[in-house]
Design a protein that fits this description.
This protein has 192 residues and is of the alpha+beta class. 34% of the residues lie in helices and 28% in strands. The chain has six helices and ten strands, in the order αβββββαβαβαβαββα. It has a seven-stranded mixed sheet with strand order 5-4-8-7-6-9-10, sandwiched between helices. Strands 1-2-3 form a three-stranded antiparallel sheet. Helix 1 packs parallel to helix 6 and helix 3 crosses helix 6.
């Protein structure tokens, strides 16, 4: 089953990304995932330590990233997703924060402030190189709607993961919970 899932994940590679100038003057990246153009907006966010970061320019630009969506009060798929990413973090070892970065975006920014993200990070032993983010609800919607199809809120959502090599302009994504070693194979493929 996992071999089939990884084959589907690898089959979703993308064509070259497009860069455009956003209305506020920041650069916005547009990539194609499964034939759909998705904006990587450069919206202002806050990480689990309360630091301000910009989604595209600080977290994704020129990096290999694993992008996931969750909310801290979720009791269904998010704990499993957190466990998988925690195991992936271990498998990445010294590469985490150097050649590969994990980004977890809350879908419930009203409730998930940096304090809640920090507690979730402690639960899953998040290390430097794995960033959890929240932000203003209106700004978060610019990020959430294109990726998961829903506006902000703590409601049921599909566990999705996107893996991208921004420098090469290659992105892939899939819904579901994958084995950490299968995610690592996809990361290694995109690093080549």
């Amino acid at each position: 089953m996992f071999k089939l899932a990884i084959a589907v994940l690898l089959a979703c590679c993308l064509i070259a990304p497009f860069a455009s100038q956003a209305q506020n003057g920041s650069v916005e990246r547009v990539v194609e995932i499964r034939g759909v153009k998705v904006s990587l907006p450069d919206v202002p966010l806050r990480d689990q330590n309360g630091r301000e970061v910009r989604f595209y320019s600080d977290l994704i630009k020129d990096k290999v990233v694993v992008l996931s969506f969750f909310y801290t009060s979720c009791t269904s798929s998010c704990p499993m997703h957190g466990k998988v990413l925690s195991e992936l973090e271990k498998l990445l070892g010294d590469r985490l924060g150097k050649s590969v970065f994990l980004i977890s975006v809350t879908t419930d920014p009203v409730k998930d402030q940096p304090q809640q993200l920090k507690a979730w990070a402690t639960r899953y032993k998040v290390k430097p190189g794995w960033t959890l983010v929240t932000g203003d609800e209106a700004e978060m919607n610019k990020l959430l709607v294109p990726f998961i199809g829903n506006k902000a809120g703590g409601e049921m959502h599909l566990p999705v993961v996107f893996i991208g090599n921004d420098r090469k302009g290659i992105w892939t994504g899939a819904a579901g919970i994958f084995a950490p070693d299968e995610l690592l194979k996809t990361i290694d493929y995109l690093l080549q």
